[in-house]
Amino acid sequence: MNQVNARHEIIREWRSLPKELRQTDEQAAAFAMQIKDKYKFSSDNADRYQTVKDWLLHYLSITRGLERNAEGEGKMSGNEKSTDPGLSAAERKTLRGREAEEPIAEHERAQKAFHENRERLREERLRREAAAGPMLYPVPELPETPVNRRGVPTPIGKLSY
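-> structure tokens emitted (161 positions)
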């Protein structure tokens, strides 16, 4: 079993426990000790217990962040991503909303700065033009005599060399 699938299964089992048995870091550590040998997966860390415990503690910190903010803004804390495989559908939805708000807000700030700068430059231009007075563009002079028409060119066969 690969590490991603093992993490999914372990988080799924963790979530199947009654809520009062999955509240603290100590409960997560005890669960990690029980389940570490149930799923065989390869890990950079030789200690499976530590890997599983880290997954559970990360999941706990995410759910605590959701619970803390549920009555307020409904946003998660930290740098979690909506692509994190250990998250539930509701948590992913919350994160996707937050991730979408950041670029939209940045775009709106950029648009506002652009429009403010454009208006500032427009006002400066209008002040300069008002100070300089009306600008009259010179009219090009027209020739007094009409343009001479050229005659019909000599046919090619009658050219002399």
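Confidence is low (pLDDT under 50) at residues 73-77.
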